[in-house]
Amino acid sequence: MSETQNNTSRPPVLIAGGGIGGMSLALTLHQIGVPCVVHEAVAELRPLGVGINLQPNAVRELYELGFDDAVLDTIGIQACEWALVGRNGRDVYCEPRGLVAGYRWPQYSVHRGQLQMLLYRAVLERLGPDAVRLGQRVVGYRNHEDGVTALIETRDGRRLETPGALLVGADGLHSAVRAQMHPAQPPIHWGGAIMWRGTTRGVPIRSGASFVGLGSLGQRVVFYPISPPDAATGLATINWIAEITVDNSRGWSQGDWNRRVDVGEFIHHFEGWNYGWLDVPAMLRGAGEVFEYPMIDRDPVPTWVDHRVALLGDAAHVMYPVGSNGASQAIVDARVLGAALLEHGVGPAALRGYDDRLCADISALVLRNRGAGPFGLLGLVDERCGGVFDDIERVIPAAERDAFMARYKAAAGFAMEALNAAPPTIAPGARVRVP
Questions:
Q1: CB within 8 A of 121, min separation 6: which ones?
Q2: CA separation for the pair 25, 167 (Å, rounded)
Q3: Residue 355 class from Cβ within 10 Å (0-12 exposed, 13-18 middle, 19+ buried)?
Q4: What is residue 328's three-state secondary structure?
Q5: Is pLDDT of 179 > 70?
Q6: Which of the residues 35, 98, 134, 146 has the least number of beta carbons within 10 Å of its own beta carbon?
Q7: Cα–chain center distance at 231
Q8: Radius of gyration of the chain (CA)
Q9: Residues linked to residue 85 through DSSP beta bridges, in sequence order
């Protein structure tokens, strides 16, 4: 599309939710000359959460939005290795990641809240302070032939009706936009896995920037640094997830979807996990605070679009965090939607194009992650040798391990050769043409 001066008199695209996906979309829309407003339910955005990984396909898009390594290095570190280690402490699989693997863009381990705040500050700087309206929850919508109305509730109890050109529901797991679009959707799905998450100061192991999954399919610890080592102490902030799988026949009984817990509630599952190179109980006990989460997702829906309304990020495809691609996919969603707006203009055709491009493939990824995603290799080890081995080559040959991981990368959109060769999602300087 040819570059055109932005016409601020046009009705804006309304974005429900100011998380990573919503902020990435706001920055993308600004980049291509489409006015937008973000409506976020909380009264104040704060850097909540713990560590996440950003795959190279998402980092590429952040670079295109103006966030290069000089910026991203302030909120995390570039990952160099991804490894699975059996319960006996022996390697099942390892591979280089990011630049050292040959990608043109790095993979990052970052603090989720710090990334959200980085994007939020950029939205305020580039779009202005009125671009984000805090304390406003989108609770529904009305479609019209030539626009959409967002139904909003404020924290002080007021009800607003805000018109826009389109509405994008980036309002997360409990999305009100999705609930209206798919009122008969099944309840949240919990497969029986419980996660405890925290961060601990410690010495990074292996490459110094390694993502490590240790244990078995039903009982494991995942950990990786999200900061460089301190020059004085050599200690970095290590993000960790401890996980077990239990009988889920009675459903999730704790009530809260995340709650602060004492490490004593679960550390007995990991007593004795001391390998010399890693003392798991000490790492868990070293956390300042620990939160418990059920590992949950939602069944895929057949479409993310209802005329002038679309879903994005977790509202569209909340998935098990086994492939480190939840936040990455939200960023990619925003960029693909921007590309569809460039191709079709600001209207329902763009939303259909976005839906056609992503919905089926990412819905399949949701189900693939439900089946353990790349951690499925640990399941194969359990099946073939009960998790105990001296030589992994005799259990799962290297060619089989490599093929397993290649299939997952292709499904998740970060197969190296394809990503390196792909043109930019949004061409530099592209702007939506004003009718």
A1: none
A2: 12
A3: buried
A4: helix
A5: yes
A6: 146
A7: 30
A8: 22
A9: 91, 214
Is 168 within 8 Å of 16 (Cβ atoms)? yes
Q: Give the span between the Cα atoms of 268 and 274, in whole angstroms.
A: 13
Looking at 241-347, list the stretches that DSSP marks H as alpha helix, in order from N- to C-terminal side: 280-285, 314-317, 326-344
Cα–chain-centroid distance for residue 283? 25
- Render pLDDT for 226-243 as a digit per residue (tens, 0 to 9): 999 999 999 999 999 999
Contact predicate 346/166, CB 8 Å? yes
Q: What are phi and psi of 86, to 5 degrees?
A: -70, 165
**Measured between alpha carbons, how far is 316 from 336 in angstroms, rounded to an integer?**
14
pLDDT surpassing 50 at residue 244: yes
Q: What per-residue confidence (pLDDT) applies to 308?
A: 98
Is residue 229 within 8 A of residue 202, CB to CB? The reply is: no
What residue spans of 182-279 are helical by DSSP H? none
What is the share, in percent, of the chain residues with pLDDT greater than 90? 84
- Which of 322, 288, 315, 290 is CA-nearest to residue 301? 315
- Tell me how far apart the alpha carbons of residues 315 and 33 are, in angstroms, rounded to a whole number: 25
Answer whether residue 3 shows pLDDT above 50: no
Whether pLDDT at 1 is above 60: no
CA–CA gap between residue 8 and residue 152 (Å, rounded): 22
Residue 403 predicted with pLDDT over 80:
yes
Instruction: Please give the sequence-ordered ranges of beta strands (E in DSSP) within 145-188, or none if there are none.
Output: 147-154, 159-164, 166-169
Q: What pLDDT, in 10s, does the model give residues 6-19?
A: 445 789 999 999 99
Give the integer Cα–Cα distance in Å for 178 and 185.
Answer: 9
Q: What is the pTM of this model?
A: 0.94
Residue from 148, 68, 66 nearest 108 by CA: 68
Is the CB of residue 313 less than 8 Å from the CB of residue 337? no
The whole-angstrom distance between residue 364's C-alpha and the CA centroid of its chain comes to 16
Strands 132-134, 91-96: pairing is: unpaired
Question: What does residue 329 show for φ and ψ, rounded to 5 degrees?
Answer: -70, -35
Would you state the pLDDT for residue 412? 84
Distances from the Cα of 371 to the Cα of 300, 318, 321, 368, angstroms: 14, 14, 11, 5
pLDDT of 5 > 50? The answer is: no
Supply 291's token pair: 């939160």
Q: What mean pLDDT value characterizes the chain? A: 93
Q: Minimal CA–CA distance to 62: which of 107, 128, 111, 124?
A: 107
Strand, coil or helix: what is 259? strand
HEC profile for 248-290? CCCCCCCCCCCEEECHHHCHHHHCCCECCCCEHHHHHHCCCCE
Residue labelled with tokens 């996906």: 21
**C-beta separation of 233 from 319 below 8 A:** no
